[in-house]
C-alpha cells in the first residue's frame, strides 16, 4: 500500500524498524536461500498456537486488525480505492459492523482462494488463518472470485486475459500474504498456483511477479498494525511484513526494503510498565468483567495478555476484558501483562481473586422424565427440553410428545422419541426453522408438533399414557404465548395437571438456560467437562516425527486423560501433557489438537489447533565438478573465463569463481569476465558448482593466465585500423590509431569498402582534418547508438553500412596500407562482433590476419575511443565515473536548476556536459547548472556527462525529468446576461486568452461553482423565482490558474398571478345570450344542427355584418391572453367557402381565424374550435368585441354556432398559449350510421353545476368497467375514478371550465363541464 496510514491502535510509523521484534531472537538472519526460508517457516509454524474459528473468530479478528485509522468505526477494504463516487463496489472503507453477504456489505476475502489450494483450503485451519484474510466489498470479492493474480497498473480489476490485478495500493500486501502462506502451508498454497508469470531460477514455485510487487509497494502501516494483533490472536507473525528484504535474501530478484538493516537495528529490549489497578466487577456464574490502568512503553504498548492463574486466556488492545465460560461457585485468580511490538512483556499486574456465583446444589433422583423447559418465542423459535434425573439411562423409544391444538380436547399431533438419555442430562426438541442459538443445542428437529402456539397444550407420554402436561387440552386460552418457561429446581417429578406455580416465566426469546437443568438436593452427578487444554505447541520437528506439549486442563473433580487428534482424527489417548507423533511423511502439512476427559466421560472443548510441516529429506549430493575452464580476450587489466556446466540430482544454482584460493564472484551462468587486474601478472583460476542445499562440487581444472604487459616507448611507421565494430542494426564503427610520433594530415587517407566479396573497393570515404600522435579517429554509421556517436569524430552511411562479409581497407594516396577481411570473398569474417587490434601489432597489414585481433561480443563498445601499442606511452583512456544524484530544483515557467554529485577520475575531472535528451545544452565546471530559455508547461529529460583533460567522457548520469510550470492566469472576461425568466437565464462572455491555453470556464454564483463549460455561453436553469444571483465567470487553464470576470447581479422574474376568468358563456337556449343579431342572414335556430341542447345561431351567405353575430363589449385590458371556444355545424357550404372569427380592437375589426370547407371542415359534421390571442400581438382594450361572420355565396350555405365560451387569462395559465392558435377538432357526423349522438349516449346534468354533484346518464353500454376523469384548462387531471354510480362528486372543483372524459372498454366520450 502506498497510502500512509496513521495507526489508531499501534503508534508505529517508520520506514525502518527502530527495533527488531524479539519474536525473531532464535532466527539466524545471516542465512540465505532455502536455509532462511526453512528457518522462517519453522518459526511461524511453531508459534501458530491458536486456530481461529471462521465464524465468529475471523470476523472479530478483522474488526481489530483492519480498522481504518481515520475512522475507528470502519475497516479498510482490500482492492478498493474510492469512497466518494456512486459505485459502492470500489469503496476503500466501510462500517466495521456492516459485514455479511449481499450488496453494500463487506465479507472475508481469501487472498489465496480456497479453491486454488491443493487440497481446497476450506474454512477451518488453513482457510481460517487471518494472515490470509482481509475485509473486501462483497461484490468486488465476487468479481475477483478465484481469478489468479496478474501484473497490471492502476486500480484493481480483471485483466484482459481474465486474471486479476489487485491495484497499485494493494499489490505489495498481496505479495507478502502469498509468501507467508507458502512458508506456512508449503505445497498446499504454492505461489505458482495463485498467479501467472515466470518462476525464479532458485525456486520454481515462487514467481518473480510477487518479488517485484514486494519491492515496488513498500510495507504499509496498516500491515504493520495487523502483525502484532494477529500475533496476540494466533501466536505467529508474517515475517515479510516485518522485513520485506527476507524475500530478496531467499529468492533474489529486486531488492526490497530492509527494515531490519541486515539485523543491525537498535533492538527494543525495554518492556512496558506493569499494568496497575486491576479490579473485577459484574461477577456471575460464568463470567466476570476485568479492568485496569494502562501501561506505558518507550515506543508503544501493543496490547495486554490476560491470565487465569498461570494460563493465558486472552489478549486485549484495550484496558478491559471479560472472561467467559467460567464454572459456577469456583475460585479464580486473574492478572494482566502488557506487551509491545518487539514482544517485550511486562511483569504481572496485581492479582485479583474472586469466586463465581453458585448455581444449583445438585440433583436428587426423580421418579420419571419430565418437561424442564418450554420456549414459545418469535417466529419459529420454539423448543421443548426433557430432563432425566431418575438415576438411570432412559430408553426414549417408549416416550412421545403430543399436541392438542386450540383446546380441541384431543392430542392429534404426535412426535415419537428415539435414542437414550443418560442420567443428569437433558434432551432438546426444536422447530426445524428456529434460531441457530436453539438449533446448535437441539438433539432433534420437527416442524409438525413443534409448530405449537401459546394456547396449544403439549404433553409428555410414556407408553401412550400422559405423564407430564403443559397447558389445558380442552381450552384455547393462551397460557404461554411469547415466553420461555423453565421448571423450578424444586420440582423433581412430572405432573399431568399444568400448574403455573411449578414454572419460572422469562421474556420472549430467552434461550440462555436451554440445554441444561438442575433440581434441588441430592448427590451431584458430574456433568461438567474439563476446561480445554491450552498452549498446545510443537517442537523437534523432523521428517517423520514431532513432539507435542500442552498446559494441563482443569476439572471440577479430576482430569483423567487427553485425546490427541491428527488432521481431526484421534490417534492416541494419554494421561500426561506430552506426546510424540511418529510415522509422519516428510515435507507434509499436518494439524494437531487435544481434548481432555474426566472419569464421567465428559470431554472438554478442543485445544488450539497447531499446524506443522515436516522437514524435507535433506539434499546431501554435490554437483559434478565444472570442466574445460578456458580464458579469452586477455588484456592488461581483464580477461574472460568460460567452462562447461555441471549437473546435479536436483539442480545447480550457482558457480563460485576462485582466483587462487579466494572466491571473487558467484554466478549462475557458465562464464565470467574478470576485471581490475594488474598488467604483466600471472593468475590462477578455478570454478566450483553449488546447489540449493549448499552442497559444493569438487574444483574444475586449474587455469594459469598472464595479463599483457604495459607499454614502454615505441612508435609505428604508419596509421593503422585499431578497432572494428559490427554490432546489431546500425551499430558500426572503424577506429584509426596514430602512433607515428607526429601529427598526421588525414586528407591523403581514405576508407574503402568491397561489398560481398566483389573484388573491388567501390564505396569510398575520404578523410579530412588531422590526427595527433597517440590519439585515435573514430568513424561511425550515422544511425548508430548514442554510445558510439558520442565518441565518433565523423559519421557516414555509405562505407559504414558494411556487414560481416564486406572487406574494409585503409588507403593512403589511393594505395591500400591496412585491411580487414578479403575483398574477393563473401565469407563472413567478422559478423556481430567487435575486433580490437592487439597491442603487440605496431604496423598496418594489407593482408587480413585474425591473429592480430582480439574478438569481443556483439555491441561491446567499451574500448572504442582509445588504443595503445607495446612500446608506446600509455595514454589516459580512463573516463571519469558517472555523475550521480542528478536532481531538479527551483522550477519556474522558463528555467530549472540542476545539481549533482561530483564524479571522480584517475587524473582529474575537468568539467561536465549537460544534455536535454540527445542535445548538449551547456557545460559547467561546477556540480550545478541553471537551464534557461525553456518553454512553459513543457517536459524535459536532463542528463550529465563528466569529462577529463584527455577528453574521456563518463557514462551518463541518472535522468532527471522536469516539467516547467504555469503561473500565469488567463485574462479575465467580460460577462453579460440575457433571457431572464423565473427559473433560468443565459450568460455570454468574451473569450479569454492564456500564455498556454484556456481549458474551461467555471460559472460562479458568489463563491459556489454552478457549472463548467468550454464554450463562451451558459444557460443557468433550475433557478428560484424572484431571487438575486451574483454571477461571474472564472477562466481556468490546465495549471489551475484562474481569473474572475466582472460581477453581474441578477434577479429572476417573479411568478405572475395565475387567473382565469370566464367572460361569457353562450348556449342560446333562452335567447341570443348577449350576442347581437346581425340581420336577415343571422337566425336563432332550433333543431338537430344545434350541438348543445336545441338552439344555436345560424349565419349564411356573405352579406357582411348581416351574415354575422356580434358579442357584447368586453374589457380585456387586464388580461395576457383571451381564449374563444365554440362548436359549429356546417351545412351546404361549397368547397373553399369559409367563415371567420373577428376581433374589434377599439378602432377596427380584424380577422383572427378563418375556417374553410375542404380544408378545415366538411358538411354535415359537428366540430369544436379554440382560438387563443395574446396581448403582445393584439391590442386588448376595454371596449373589445368578437364576431362570427359567414363568407359563403348564397342563402343555402349555413354555419351553425353553438356553446361559445370566452375566457380571459393571466399568469401561468396564459403562458401555455402561443401568440395565436386556432385548433379544430371533429366531433361527430349527423347523417351517417356511425353518428355519435351525445344526447343519446352520454347525458350530463346539471351543467353548469353549482352544487356538490353532477349526474351522468349513459345509454347503450353493457360495460361494467367505466372510468372517468376531469381535466382543467391546463391539461391537468384534477379528479379521476371508476363510475360506480350515476353521479360524480365535484365539490373539490374550483369555479371554471373543465373537460369530463368517460371511458368504457370500447370508446371514449368527452363533454365540457362548467363549475359555478
- Tell how many strands the DSSP assignment holds: 88
Percent of sequence in beta strands: 35-45%
**What shape does the CA trace take?**
flat
Taking all Cα atoms into account, the compactness measure Rg is 51 Å
The major sheet is characterized as: 7 strands, antiparallel
List segments where confidence is low: pLDDT < 50 over at least 5 consecutive residues. 1-18, 1215-1220, 1232-1240
- Overall residue-averaged pLDDT value: 88
Number of helical segments with 4 or more residues: 12
Label the structural class: mainly beta
- Oligomeric form: single chain
Amino-to-carboxy terminus distance: 76 Å
Which range best describes the helical content: under 10%, 10-25%, 25-40%, 40-55%, 55-70% or over 70%? under 10%
